[in-house]
Amino acid sequence: MNLTKSRQQLLRLLKDKAYRYRANPPFTLASGRLSSYYLDCRPVTHNAYGLTLVGEIFFNLIKELEVQAVGGLTMGADPIAHAVAVISYLRGKPINAFSIRKTPKAHGMGQLVEGDVRPGEKVVIVEDVMTTGGSVIKAIQAARDFGLHIVKVIILVDRQEGGREEVAKWSPQVEAVFTLQDFLT
């Protein structure tokens, strides 16, 4: 699959299904900030074609890394991690997926980290949209507490509001597939 073409197609899908602009009243973001721009990537990351594009693009960003799994904070990271796992298997380089709960499970093992991942493994943390980086940092902390080694963080859309700089304090590499600027041009 041509990655340049895939990126263009994914950006078109995101612009059509995920991006909204509203000047007044502005949207309230998960961070509590107000913004005229809102990105809800779920209509794309839960869309068959969008999911395929996301899986291909993210896999190509990590295929040379020696990582065993990819995951992040549920629910934004879940479809991305699952798409990467499927594409990686189809490409002959299986990378497992995992999820990080927002709170520990109230029954059973009471874990925050779920999936086919073990302490000591190298992983990539993924997220759909980043504003302040708080959700990504929470995922990194939970993954580290579980015993995972973070190699890289990849964000589908960076809103460019300081999150990347904050996450860079926690991860050796931080990369965004798109930035808010891509939606404004």
Describe the structure.
- By secondary structure, the chain is α/β, with parallel strands linked by helices.
- It has one domain (51-184): Rossmann fold (3-Layer(aba) Sandwich), CATH 3.40.50.2020.
- 38% of the residues lie in helices and 26% in strands.
- The protein has seven helices and ten strands.
- It has helices at 3-17, 42-45, 48-62, 78-90, 134-146, 163-168, 180-184, and strands at 19-21, 27-28, 34-35, 37-39, 69-73, 96-100, 113-115, 122-130, 149-158, 174-179.
- The strands form three sheets. The chain has a six-stranded mixed sheet with strand order 7-6-5-8-9-10, sandwiched between helices.
- α1 (3-17) packs across α3 (48-62) and α3 packs across α4.
- The longest helix is centred in the N-terminal third of the chain and has 15 residues, at 3-17.
- The two termini are 25 Å apart.
- The mean pLDDT is 93.
The unreliable regions are: none
Number of strands: 10
Estimated structural class: alpha/beta
Radius of gyration: 16 Å
Reported for the largest beta sheet, the result is: 6 strands, mixed
CATH topology: Rossmann fold
Tell me the span between the first and last alpha carbons. 25 Å
CATH architecture: 3-Layer(aba) Sandwich
Query: What would you call the shape?
Result: globular
Query: Looking across the biggest beta sheet, what order are the strands in?
Result: 7-6-5-8-9-10
The fraction of residues in strands falls at: 25-35%
Tally the helices.
7
Give the overall pLDDT as a whole number. Answer: 93
The number of domains is 1
CATH level 1 class label? Alpha Beta
Helix content: 25-40%
Write the H/E string, N to C: HEEEEHHEHEEEHEHEH
